[in-house]
Amino acid sequence: MAPGRVRWGILGAAKFARDHMARAIHAAEGAELAALATSARQKAAGFQTFCPGLNVHDSYEALLDDPGIDAVYIPLPNHLHVAWTEKALAAGKHVLCEKPIAMQADQIDRLIAARDASGLLAAEAYMIVHHPQWQHARKLLADGAVGELLHVDGFFSYDNSADPGNIRNKPETGGGSLPDIGVYTCGAARFATGQEPTEVSSRITWENGVDVTAHVDAQFPGFTFSATTSMRMHPRQEMTFHGADGVLRLTAPFNAGVFGEARVELHRGMTTTVERFPAANHYVLQVEAFCRSARSGDDYIWPLEQAKGTQRMLDMAFAGEVSA
Prior knowledge:
The chain is an alpha/beta fold. The chain contains 9 helices and 14 strands. The chain has helices spanning 15-27, 45-48, 60-64, 81-90, 105-118, 132-142, 177-193, 282-296, 304-319, and strands spanning 6-11, 31-37, 55-57, 71-74, 94-97, 122-124, 149-159, 199-207, 210-219, 224-230, 232-243, 247-251, 263-268, 271-276.
């Protein structure tokens, strides 16, 4: 790849890509949004409003064959992530793929092998690790701000019951609350603490073959964990790290700036200190970090091995479902 900006293409005109990631690529330092692949040309108009010079390909293959593209972003339905990540690597492109990058942990081994064989960067688009809210929380925990960490709990919910055609409500497209948002509650606990679960169990409510609500309990080497994800409850986002000497609470930990203001609250006795991060855009920060690693070959903060760790925890949650 030539020095300078990383030229990006997007596979598919997904709404999330149009509203968030395409804009982030367009705004990120060191990046250029150059191409979009969609067979529905009318959908390209929403991207061209802020990126008028965007080149539109009528197929994913055509974009992957474009020699002017260095990296691709993949916002396709979950069940397509592995195959198109492999195809993009084979075409010589760096890959940033939406989460979950695979439906089972062992599928990520294929992607690790393809990444290593290609010498390219392939990663899951786990944007929260780039946000200063999470980096600050991780440092506070490492510095012992809450004393001995004893328990972590999380909650992430929204309600899409009125949209049965949504890909998140369909088993054939890899839907469900755990694949969609369990990656956040489980992955955030792993990232912030640096620990891996030893035991995982769950209680799940199923509709049409997908988990619409899941309560996950886990044992980590140093603490217990509990989290709820739901696609049938009023929106809520929160992560809490409870120690012997204090409590660390993160507001809007997963959709900072959209759900609400990202804050880190440290509660110790009668004292509360609050750090606020109103201006940070974790999508832009993610693209910039990816571009730096793609150009330099330096380590990326959320490599495929980390994505595999979270997927392994989700696999354990499904396998550990407790009958009602």
